[in-house]
Amino acid sequence: MIDSHAHLHDKAFDEDRASVVARALDAGVEAMLSVGCDLADSARAIACAREFGLRASVGIHPHEAEHAPDDIAAAFAPLLADPTVVAVGETGLDYYYDHSPRDAQARVLRAQIRIARERDLPVIFHHRDAFDDFHAILREEFVSGMRGVIHCFTGDAAQARVYVDGFGLALGIGGVLTFKTAETLRDAVRAVGIAPLVLETDCPYLAPIPHRGKRNEPAYVADTAARLAEVLDVSRETVLARTDANARGLFRL
Asked: In the chain, what are the domains?
C-alpha cells in the first residue's frame, strides 16, 4: 500500500511520530508522502521525510496564498533540490473557506503549475467549491504530458470524468469514501473505475470508518482500500496492485 497524501510532519504526530510510521509499515504501507502547505511547512515535510525514509512535496496551499512570496519559483528552488521531494503542492483553489483572496489563490496556483511543468514534477491539487475557475486554469496551464492528482477527490461523476478524461489526472481517494453520506463519491469512483485512482489518508484529518472522529494515520489506508474493493466489486489485491502502480508512476517512486 502507498499513502499518497499525508501530513506526517504535522504537530498532531509530534509525540509519537516514530510509532505512527512503525504502525504503517507493520500494516503494509510501503511508501508515504508528507505534503507541504507553505514554505515552512514544506521544510518540515522534507525534514520528516529525511528522518523516516518518506517522500515529500513542496507547496503553498490556497489557504496560505495571500502570504506567498512574489517569486515563488525562487523560494521553492532550494527546497525542490532535496532528493526526498517528488511533487509540487498541495496547491489549488478553495472557495469554501476563502481564507485567501481568490486572485491570490489563482496567482499562486498558476505559479506552482508552471514550476512543476518546468521541472517535470507532478502537481498535487486541492480543489473545493471552485470547479469552474479551477477548470479554466487547468485548461490554460496544465499541458499535455504533465502529471497530477486531485487530492481528496469528493466530486461527482461528471467532475471525475473531466479530470480523468480531459487532463489525465489521478484521483486521490481517502477516508471520505467510507462515510455513509458519500454515495455521490462512490458513484464517481464507479464511473471512472480503478484505472485513475490512488489511495491517501490526508492524515491527521478525515479518518475512515471505523476510526472516524479519531486522529487519522497512514495505517488506516487499509480501511479505505477495503471499502474501495467493495465499491468496485474487485478484490483487495486488485485495488492495492493498481493503486500502488498508479502512485509509483505518478510520483516516479
From this structure: 2-251 (3.20.20.140)
